[in-house]
Amino acid sequence: MPPEVETTAIPPRGQRVQETIAQLRERILGGEWPVGSRVPTEPQLVAALGVGRNTVREAVRALAHAGVLEIRQGSGTYVVSVDELAPVVARRLTDDRMTEVVEVRRALEVEAARLAARRRTADDLAALADALTAREAAWRSGRVNDFVTADAMLHTAVVAAAHNGMLAELHASIGTAMRSTVAATLGENLTPERYVDHSRLIEAIQAGDPGWAAIEAGAYLAPPPPA
């Protein structure tokens, strides 16, 4: 009678693909492959993840379909987003949806400011102060693109200070849409009448006053008056 041989169960193909997708997502979210970077080649992924070529291929295609990766023939596969919601929001963004973006920002950022005033740490306060300084410097530079980026970084810092992971993910998903609406509002030049001071928002969070912080966050995201 032949000796018994211990065998290890092999997960079904669909499960292997899902596990590989999860591993790829984890590396992207962890910053190993930042947005704009090229991911390793298929053979390298096979070796690194310990799965077959077809499994890697299906996982990469799934993430490309979700808008996280982009397959460029003759060049490789690149990370284009860390969030599967972001490409969906970007595809839906049109001029007649700008008001909707502002309404969604208001829903997220007012609560983020309220939570930030309650939960901010010393590190958060330092990050907020630095972000506000950078935003002011970007405005003085007169460069619209620099200001849009610095403004987005300040709002991201406020959301981060709320210490709510799901809220941060939702806010990140509208990042492109948010920057587009700000850029559209500013136009080609930074003019004084379009300047919106955010120092009082940061002061409210520093003071630990949730009500004041919510009021300040809502003030610059007020819906336009009815026509």
UniProtKB/TrEMBL annotation:
It comes from the Bacteria. The lineage of its organism: Bacteria, Bacillati, Actinomycetota, Actinomycetes, Micromonosporales. Keywords: DNA-binding, Transcription, Transcription regulation. This is Transcriptional regulator, GntR family. It comes from Salinispora tropica (strain ATCC BAA-916 / DSM 44818 / JCM 13857 / NBRC 105044 / CNB-440). Transmembrane segments: none annotated. InterPro entries: GntR_C, TF_FadR/GntR_C, Tscrpt_reg_HTH_GntR, WH-like_DNA-bd_sf, WH_DNA-bd_sf. SUPFAM superfamilies: GntR ligand-binding domain-like, Winged helix' DNA-binding domain. GO terms for molecular function: DNA binding; DNA-binding transcription factor activity. Gene3D superfamilies: GntR ligand-binding domain-like, Winged helix-like DNA-binding domain superfamily/Winged helix DNA-binding domain. Residues 14-82 form the HTH gntR-type domain. PANTHER family: REGULATORY PROTEIN GNTR HTH, TRANSCRIPTIONAL REGULATOR, GNTR FAMILY.
